[in-house]
């Protein structure tokens, strides 16, 4: 049997799934290569939407993509499991055994051989070793974590509504540690959820009873974005009755309390950690060079500096930018651009061609405040200057980001159908998912 070049992509996040979709449609369908996706989950949800799943404003089941079904339609294979090892000499990766919810082994440990390996495993929250963070904080790295947060939030709302009815203390303090895009957008979603409660019969609990606070160690929220955007976001959060605390890091997280560096204690019955990211720790144990944050060190071609047969991109890769001493930022638009470049490189690779260097183009940033407003800055392609946008125009651009992702996975016709179905669903379904 003729050996087909085997491209194995580990990680079915935004970048990984876009890459295998294009490779499958172009190479797998024509039999030019064998394409395999490895992921520890059965379904994909666009990670920038997880805060909406957590708040209940988005039904994850309506936005999930089943890897098996998608693989069959787009001519690639899917392997369920978590990568735990790498044998570079034998060109094999190790996939851990898969167990069901009761601990029974469903699939034993497997080894998958590759000709080209692509690591696209994303990132996890970085608590910077803060005492108590792992024990007392909620995280939004994955769909199961977002769903857990949603269930805990609903139970807290129901409990406080009952306390209010009985005349007991019923304030619910919620604290978000970290005021990057995820933290800021989650705060707005939580405020929306608090204002929707009377619609569902929780008439004894008012929005003011749910105190939402955002803590940022830097001197302003959204510290990685332009100051004008940060100022607009601060004003919007304050207009939505969200407390914004900046300029001081969190020293410790205890049960129902967040302790600041100066000793100030902030009551918090639900604490969410959104203050930083790092690559998964197991990457640092592989036989490839990684950074202190476990990111795979890659060249501008996205090839590992250790092995030319291994590529990495997205949040799990430290990719240099020409003319800068800082790597490509861990953003969704960067992963999307890298997937496009890597697709070209892997096509050239089959024909013996050279890899394509990756050049990052910053198209700006958009911050969505739930159904209230959207603000952001868009980068001009010709002038290089940024243009500030807000309101309906910014909201349109923000919505287009997800549609671009869907278009990469489904094509324009199917994406148009999904968009129409979403419009109908939003008109017929409740605004807040209360189950």
From TrEMBL:
The keyword Coiled coil does not apply. GO terms for molecular function: NAD(P)H dehydrogenase (quinone) activity. It comes from the Bacteria. One of its GO terms (biological process) is aerobic electron transport chain. It holds the Pfam family Pyr_redox_2. Residues 6-339 form the FAD/NAD(P)-binding domain. Its cofactor is FAD. The keyword S-adenosyl-L-methionine does not apply. Keywords: FAD, Flavoprotein, Oxidoreductase. InterPro entries: FAD/NAD-bd_sf, FAD/NAD-binding_dom, NADH-Q_oxidoreductase. Belongs to the NADH dehydrogenase family. PANTHER family: 64 KDA MITOCHONDRIAL NADH DEHYDROGENASE (EUROFUNG), APOPTOSIS-INDUCING FACTOR 1. This is NADH dehydrogenase. It comes from Marinobacter segnicrescens.
């Amino acid at each position: 049997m003729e050996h087909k070049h085997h491209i194995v992509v580990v990680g079915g996040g935004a970048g990984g799934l876009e890459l295998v979709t294009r490779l499958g449609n172009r190479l797998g369908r024509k039999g030019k290569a064998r394409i395999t996706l490895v992921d520890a989950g059965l379904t994909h949800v666009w990670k920038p939407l997880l805060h909406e799943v957590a708040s209940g404003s988005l039904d994850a089941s309506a936005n999930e993509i089943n890897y098996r079904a998608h693989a069959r339609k787009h001519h690639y294979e899917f392997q369920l499991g978590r990568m735990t090892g790498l044998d570079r000499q034998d060109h094999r990766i190790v996939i851990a055994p898969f167990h069901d919810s009761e601990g029974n082994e469903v699939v034993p440990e497997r080894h998958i051989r590759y000709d080209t390996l692509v690591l696209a495993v994303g990132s996890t929250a970085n608590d910077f070793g803060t005492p108590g963070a792992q024990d007392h904080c909620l995280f939004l790295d994955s769909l199961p974590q977002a769903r857990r947060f949603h269930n805990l939030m609903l139970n807290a709302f129901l409990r406080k509504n009952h306390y209010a009815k009985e005349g007991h203390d019923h304030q619910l303090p919620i604290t978000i540690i970290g005021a990057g895009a995820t933290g800021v957008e989650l705060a707005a979603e939580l405020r929306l959820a608090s204002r929707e409660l009377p619609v569902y019969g929780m008439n004894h609990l008012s929005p003011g009873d749910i105190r939402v606070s955002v803590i940022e160690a830097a001197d302003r929220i959204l510290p990685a974005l332009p100051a004008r955007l940060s100022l607009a976001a601060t004003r919007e959060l304050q207009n939505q009755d969200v407390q914004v605390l900046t300029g001081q890091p969190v020293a410790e997280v205890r049960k129902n309390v967040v302790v600041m560096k100066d000793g100030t204690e902030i009551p918090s019955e639900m604490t969410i950690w959104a203050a930083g990211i790092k690559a998964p720790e197991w990457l640092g144990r592989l036989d490839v060079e990684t950074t202190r944050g476990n990111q795979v060190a890659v060249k501008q071609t996205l090839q590992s500096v250790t092995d030319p047969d291994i590529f990495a991109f997205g949040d799990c890769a430290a990719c240099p930018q020409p003319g800068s001493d800082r790597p490509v930022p861990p953003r969704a638009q960067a992963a999307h651009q890298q997937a496009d470049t890597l697709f070209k490189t892997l096509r050239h690779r089959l024909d013996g061609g050279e890899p394509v260097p990756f050049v990052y183009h910053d198209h700006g940033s958009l911050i969505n405040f739930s159904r209230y407003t959207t603000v952001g800055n868009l980068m001009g392609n010709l002038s290089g200057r940024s243009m500030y946008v807000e309101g309906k125009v910014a909201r349109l651009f923000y919505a287009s980001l997800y549609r671009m992702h869907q278009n990469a996975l489904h094509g324009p016709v199917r994406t148009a159908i999904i968009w129409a179905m979403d419009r109908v669903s939003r008109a017929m379904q409740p605004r807040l998912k209360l189950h």
